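[Meeting: bench + compute handoff]

Bench side (C.D.) handed over the final construct sequence. Compute side (W.E.) agreed to return the predicted structure before the next meeting so the bench team could plan truncations. Sequence as handed over:
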Amino acid sequence: MSSHKDFSRLGFVSTVVVPSLLIFLVPAISWMFFLHAQATFDTNIRTALIRQLEADPSIPGPERVAAIDKIAGTPFSQILITDEEFTSTVDSDLRGRYAVFRWMIRLSKWSVFAGISVFLFVGLCVLLSLRSPFVQYFSLLVGWHALRLYGALQTIIIGVLLVALSYWVTALWWGVYWQRLIVIATALAFGGAAAVLVAIFRRPAEDGSLEGKILEPQTSPELWKQIEPICVSVGVRPPDWVVAGIADTFL
């Protein structure tokens, strides 16, 4: 009994827990990395701006102190958002880099929170499905479509994050980037995303085939003798066919 429970727990972990955690892997890594990248740029720019202000004799003392206090007390990334006049004087390339950081952080954050929300919503649908057959049908229908929509959006977001990581990881930490790595990451990310999206929204084939063996009354009389009293006791007519499958989950 103990080994059977251990096997069941292992199966639950490998089929439910591990895939669930993998959903959050890329967004969580991207979230932490781009926060780190933004903070690194903030530190470097703050240090450079303070040195420029301290070395500029044309700026009066009180104005220099006020400017240094503002730069030292507020991250440069925050100044770009709150001070439009100052932002207009910043180089467009630098503004573009910070825009990438902000959007990658937002996508990562939205992806993580959306994943948690969808899991909670699907869990609620499962609980509601226990109330009645009608509620079960409705909750499973809504939950299924919610999972499809979430899966499609999550696939696209992960593809974008992987492409961004393929450039910025090497650019930030080693000061170089490899075009071949970016091209490979882009091809794999969007090729995989396209395959997943097609699988999500493709209608399953309905060929009506069933793998199994038909058990005739002549070849399996004992089985049919047991079925007929059961049907009479529950008030239904006997089945037209009895099909046996080789899998233990065959219904």
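W.E. noted at the follow-up: Helices lie at 2-55, 61-73, 76-82, 84-87, 92-128, 133-174, 179-201, 221-234. C.D. will use this when planning the next construct.
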